[in-house]
């Protein structure tokens, strides 16, 4: 049986590092930080880590706790224009670049993140 992307990329540690780095940047980003309630940055980070881990073949905790991801629906209440999209990708690119990943894994992850970010634009 072949390993999942999650396993090949380093499992929980890699996805924890990615999300931790990303949210450290979000916490000080003037465009993104106001989109999060003061008391929910940690919760948002947990949800993103669970989602990405599950998406890439890791534990199914996200679906067990939250049901189907329904990303567009969950992001619908937020104003997401090209400005927010670009700010999100800037933070995420820095986080992805900070991972110790083989180029093919980094490219696959980045392609997904770019496509997912584009799909969230609603304004």
UniProtKB/TrEMBL annotation:
Keywords: Heme, Iron, Metal-binding, Transport
Pfam family, one: Bac_globin
Cofactor: heme
Record flagged with keyword Glycoprotein: no
Presence of keyword Protein transport: no
The organism's place on the tree of life at top rank: Bacteria
One Gene Ontology term of the molecular function aspect: oxygen binding
Listed InterPro entries: GlbO/GLB3-like, Globin-like_sf, Globin/Proto, Globin_bac-like_CS, Hemoglobin_trunc
Name of this chain's protein: Hemoglobin
UniProt organism field: Candidatus Nanopelagicus abundans
């Amino acid at each position: 049986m072949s390993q999942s992307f999650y396993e090949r990329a380093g499992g929980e540690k890699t996805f924890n590092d990615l999300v931790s780095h990303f949210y450290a940047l979000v916490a000080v980003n003037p465009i993104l930080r106001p989109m999060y309630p003061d008391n929910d940055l940690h919760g948002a980070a947990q949800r993103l880590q669970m989602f990405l881990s599950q998406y890439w073949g890791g534990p199914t905790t996200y679906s067990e706790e939250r049901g189907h991801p329904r990303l567009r629906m969950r992001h619908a209440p937020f104003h997401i224009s090209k400005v927010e999209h670009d700010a999100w990708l800037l933070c995420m690119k820095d986080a992805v670049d900070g991972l110790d990943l083989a180029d093919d894994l980094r490219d696959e992850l980045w392609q997904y993140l770019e496509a997912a970010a584009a799909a969230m634009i609603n304004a």
